[in-house]
Amino acid sequence: MTSAAARIRLPGQVTAIAAAFLVSCLGDGLAITALMLDFHDRATGGLGIAALFGAMSVPAILLAGLAGRISDRHPARRVLPPLGVGLVGVCAVMSLTDAVALLVGLLAVLSGLMAIAAPVFVKALFQASPAPLISRAGALVSMASNLGFLIGPAVGALLMDAVGLRGVLLVDAATYLAVPLVALCLPAPPESATTADPARPAQQSGFLVGLRILVQHLHLARVVLVGLVLTFALQVTNVVEIYLVRDSYGATATVFGLLTTAWAAGQIIGAGTAGRLLSERATARPAALTACAVGAALLTIAALNSLPVLFVLTALAGAANGAFGVVRQTALGRTIDSAGQGSAAAAHAALLNSATIAGLVGAGFVGAVVQPRTVYVLAGGLLLLALATTHVYRRTGPAPTTATRTQPGAVATATALPAD
């Protein structure tokens, strides 16, 4: 980071958004942990747990078009308060029921509301961040989210023993109050946003529009594609990781928990490091290096048989994955014009959730016929193959361009940054 960029402080709006992510992700982490424990105790089997994960992922895919249109056509300060009230209300209703099917259905509604709120937050973050600080802003939000998900499951397990599922869900409802509160920190919409001009054509937005935006920028499309393969590979290995630790190493449940903590801690460190280093650097090389590091770590984990080395490689892979997330977010913020950022963010979230579901399903089939180490080899090899393919395509493609960010408050435009 250059000295000039280092002296620029992050706007208060960015800090407020990061705080909202920390609180809400902590609530999500404790709630899903409590629901999984409750479903396990009720002997719902693998189908019940699968239904929980489906309820968390599918709504983001189905509502991508609506989420993109809302985020691009309506200011965040107007959208977030009713969404926050809805989130609090749904969580409160969940605390009043014990029916498994109803809990899953309400969780899907909750996930749908969050799917709409997510691109609104992303666009608000980009608009609040001066161009040289996009990477630092994205890193701060990523670190806050990872910290929330790191603390949430532990707190959820403790609260489950202390107050039960109803109490945990009420705590989760309270954490969603951060969504309407953060809206108070965002700027009021301009007068032009309050009155529609009938002579002006309607702005195009939605899922397909978001996909076109992602595809038309070749560098961004490559980063997104590698990120989808990365998500798929990590979901596959996440499913079989417990078998690698418990069966191949004969380790205890505590060791598995510590390994998960090492991954999360690595993500936080990697995100923070990337945020500082990417301020005025291009994103093409960091994206390739971090994805390559994850792939190499997966292959090395499969090859070696040392528990201490497993911890080191897991932490390094987590750091590389956290850094890649910031690189990808920075590429999105630098490349896409503000008018289409909401649709692009919603489409990207739908693609990521699709990759997550595909990874979970794929792991179920592959993990049933091969050993965990073989799964790691396949996942790491697939990621490196995707990276090599996009690199070859990059060498034959035209030079990418960077869109100019036109939102108010930016102290520099993206065109002043290195071309990717």
UniProtKB/TrEMBL annotation:
Pfam families on file: MFS_1
Domain Major facilitator superfamily (MFS) profile: 1-397
Domain of life: Bacteria
Transmembrane segments: 47-67, 102-126, 138-159, 220-245, 251-274, 286-304, 348-369, 375-393
Region (Disordered): 398-420
Keywords annotated in UniProt: Cell membrane, Membrane, Transmembrane, Transmembrane helix
Low complexity bias (residue ranges): 398-410
Cellular location(s): Cell membrane
Principal place of residence: membrane
InterPro entries: MFS, MFS_dom, MFS_trans_sf
Membrane-topology annotation of the record: Multi-pass membrane protein
PANTHER family, per the entry: INTEGRAL MEMBRANE EFFLUX PROTEIN-RELATED (PTHR23513), MAJOR FACILITATOR SUPERFAMILY ASSOCIATED DOMAIN-CONTAINING PROTEIN (PTHR23513:SF6)
Name listed for the protein in its UniProt record: MFS transporter
Species annotation: Streptomyces albidocamelliae
Lineage, highest ranks first: Bacteria, Bacillati, Actinomycetota, Actinomycetes, Kitasatosporales
